[in-house]
Amino acid sequence: MNTWQQQNEMIIKEFRAHGGTVRLGGYGPFILMTTTGAKTGQRHTTPLMYVADGDRLLAVASKAGSSTHPSWFYNLLAHPQVTVEVGTETFEAVARVLADNEREEAFAKAVEVFPFYEEYQKATTRIIPVIALER
């Protein structure tokens, strides 16, 4: 297991042990999103920071400004039905990749909460996807 996987496992364990609260170097808040693998069909749980946006949650597929999308993004493209854990609540959602003006507005909201997303976007030539998780 690599360092990234170990960190995710630690966050997942702390999230579930403390009612959805994780303290990780000032980062957060977190949700846990469980996707179905695009290639394997296996379920994968990933901790993600999120922004509340009315009745939906926004997730940003930043991968810290990497030139490639995170693996969970490909999973939800193949299987948009996901399970979301926020706080002590668990619910089923549909993941929808936002486009055009809707994406721009959602990304701006995310940058207001997490200013480093703007730096991540500057670090890559790809357009960082914003995903709406809708019940």
Automatic annotation (TrEMBL):
GO terms for cellular component: plasma membrane. It comes from the Bacteria. Gene3D superfamilies: Electron Transport, Fmn-binding Protein, Chain A. Pfam families: F420H2_quin_red. It catalyses: oxidized coenzyme F420-(gamma-L-Glu)(n) + a quinol + H(+) = reduced coenzyme F420-(gamma-L-Glu)(n) + a quinone. InterPro entries: F420H2_quin_Rdtase, Split_barrel_FMN-bd. NCBIfam families: hi_GC_TIGR00026 (TIGR00026). Belongs to the F420H(2)-dependent quinone reductase family. This is Nitroreductase family deazaflavin-dependent oxidoreductase.
